[in-house]
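Quarterly update from the structural biology core.
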Amino acid sequence: MARRRRLVLVLVDGLSADYYESHSDLLPNLRVLAGGGTRVRRLRSAVPATSMPGRATMLTGVGPDVHGVIGNHVLDGDSFRVATPDDVAASTVAEWAGKAGRDVAAVGFAMLRPSCASVFHPPWWVRGFMDGSRFAKIPAERSAEYASNVKDPDGRLPAPMSLGPAMEKEGLVRGLAWDAWMMRATAALMCSDDAPDLALVEIAMTDTIQHQFGYASPEAHWSLAHADELVGGLVRSLQDAGRLDDTVLAVVSDHGHAPMHTALYPDRILPGMVWESEGATLHVLADGAARGQATARLAAHGAVAIASDHVPEPHRERVATYAAPEGHSFEASPPGAAPDAISGRPKYASTHGLMPGAPADDRFCVIAGPGIRRHTIDTAAADQLAPTLSAILGVDAPAGTGTPFRTV
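Predicted structure, tokenized:
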């Protein structure tokens, strides 16, 4: 009797379709997977194309208008706060698998609740967002509980990683080390005698480094090549353990990236208004006359109003959405900015959350392994990934999710 296929979902944060098209020579392990499986040349992003909506749609197979995660920040009363797994108002592929009797392990994959998996390790970067980041808006008690919630009753994960004091202080080094540990932990799980049916893991520093140093910068090239090598290490571990014949790998990203040369300052353009930046997308809490005023003020600087169809119906009339002109993003004015400055050099040299449908926000996606057809799909919608993963696992996706794309 053939063994049931297992599935590993690897998120490479911020790996765009354009980057792979132009620089696949730097990504040999992903290139091998793409050549031997189903590759989506352009997997579209959720709107807005930022991390938390990307993950939520990737997991649920529905858009933000249904799952409720309208950005890295969500509306909470009369203000915005960071999105958490508790804000995902739709069930996830991890929950579908669990209800079907499959064993699930979540190793640092954001927007999943600990209850969805028998083995759970929180994303390492949640701790960083609690201190020194705009994500510090997350309620402290909620973030502390989530960031420390390691669930591994049978000791299936490797020993927890311990970094020296110097490494703990160096953010980029710490992040790279944690990414490597998460991938090694996933490899150990999948190569064990008690391998889960579904494992979800993410490589996060690729996004951070692109933000800081720029799209296609030397540092970005290095970070994405490092992520490629982490994927290659997972493949080699599976091969050495004789598990490649029953393990499917799905490697995807959550959004793309594009270089920025100017940041617009909403706090200067919209004084007194409540707003939240989603990269090159802006949410403004405004209705009626206030919405018209916001639209006019932003239009004077090249920003355009776009539909708020991604916002759930009860809040759609309260949240106005805008897209920055090409090469521009939305950021808070930095300390020391001139009093009359409404724009300046961006903090993030590259970002995402572009105009809906912008090619630069299209994502990388490849699925390879036993029973997976070798072919290329030109484009697929953001909501098609989760039902595709459920079809590979042999479990049913709920009604209302996207249509699986063809992998067999």
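Confidence is low (pLDDT under 50) at residues 128-141.
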